[in-house]
Amino acid sequence: MLDGKLFRCQNSLKWYTFILSFTDYNYFRKEVMEMSVINDSNEYKLYIKNAIIKLLNSEFEESYNLIVHALSINPNAPEPQNLLGIWYEFKGDEDMAMKHYRASSALDPTYKPANKNIERICTFYVLPDMTIDFGDEILLVKND
Fold first, then answer.
1. pTM here?
2. Coil, strand or helix: which one is 49?
3. Superfamily of domain 40-140
4. CA-CA distance, 61 to 143, in Å (whole number)?
5. What digits encode the pLDDT tens for the residues 4-27?
6. CB 7 within 8 A of CB 19
7. Paired residues of 9 in beta bridges
8. Centroid of chain to Cα 56
9. Which residue in 14, 72, 86, 123 is a FRET match for 92, CA 20 to 30 A apart?
10. What is the pLDDT of residues 59-105, one digit of tens each?
11. How many C-beta neighbours within 10 Å does residue 91 have?
12. How many Cβ atoms are within 10 Å of 131's Cβ, its own excluded?
């Protein structure tokens, strides 16, 4: 009988399979998970930043692809849903925009950009200081 677990990890587009003893497994799993979170986090932030820039430059197809890719990296994050709401709003579909703003708010009720966008899109009289909130504080964070 094999004294170990079959372990798979993804590095870029390649899959690696390891057979580890039980003592090495927990240590290796912890190291790989931490490394994967850091890499995914940096990649995720990069996609979000580029999507915001593309949206601001009215490059809608490129921004949509970047947002969807960020969503595939971190499906539980509110930022891609907020950006999809902005994307739909720029396209003129306020109903779909509202659905994505609400999804973003449901994923993280404390995420202020989605809540501001919901308030803005539901307000009958739009005030001059009520602008689309991209959640671009992520642009100010340096990549590690």
1. 0.65
2. helix
3. Tetratricopeptide repeat domain (1.25.40.10)
4. 25
5. 444 444 444 444 444 444 445 455
6. yes
7. 16
8. 18
9. 72
10. 999 999 999 999 999 999 999 999 999 999 999 999 999 999 999 99
11. 12
12. 11
Domain extent listing, the chain: 40-140
Tabulate helix, strand, coil % of the chain (nearest 5): 65, 10, 25
Single-letter amino acid, residue 90: F
Between CA 106 and CA 109, with CA 108 as vertex, the angle to 5 degrees is 75
Which residue matches tokens 């790989």?
32
* DSSP string for 83-143: HHHHHHHHHT-HHHHHHHHHHHHHH-TT-HHHHHHHHHHH-SS--TT------GGGGGSPP
Instruction: Determine the Cα angle at 143 with ends 113 and 67, to 5°.
Output: 45
SS (H, E, C) 29-79: HHHHHHHHHHHHHHHHHHHHHHHHHHHHCCCHHHHHHHHHHHHHHCCCCHH
> How distant is the alpha carbon of residue 100 from its chain centre?
13
